[in-house]
């Protein structure tokens, strides 16, 4: 068991190294291990994410972008194996959706799209809806748009999740006169969410 954990310990050391080149190397090795030993990574995902998620907020732009790009690939490989770290994963992604760096922003959007494509949609709906109150600007718009996309899939399976988590997102837009985002950009996104909810709920939405 100790021998089995040795690669994890080495990986975690690389991810927390003082030199950014070494942290980059750790991120690249993590992706390689996901491809060659996905079950091993999934089994130890909580410990790995303790050291990996901080790289999505790294002080060095190259490390941050690389971590987000690798995260997007990991989501496609590990899928449900990431369920135990869903909250931290979504935090790492959404915290970068207001980045002015096009590379970092693009990588964060890609990771968000991969999440919708491969992760448990009910859990994802809950986490994205919960994150809404912590977001502003473009991040708030991006997340709300993805919530609207998830509505059609989640409602037939878990209508209570829509009522408890998603409706408050719509109400927060409709009832808040001082939104943390430019109003001109809000209207099409809120309309998209309202239309998605009305499509599945009909008159119940009233």
TrEMBL record:
Biological process (GO), any one: microtubule cytoskeleton organization
Highest taxon above the source species: Eukaryota
Entry GO MF terms: microtubule binding
Gene Ontology CC terms, in alphabetical order: cilium; cytoplasmic microtubule
InterPro entries reported for this sequence: ARM-like, ARM-type_fold
Name of the featured protein: TGRM2 protein
Originating species: Malurus elegans (Red-winged fairywren)
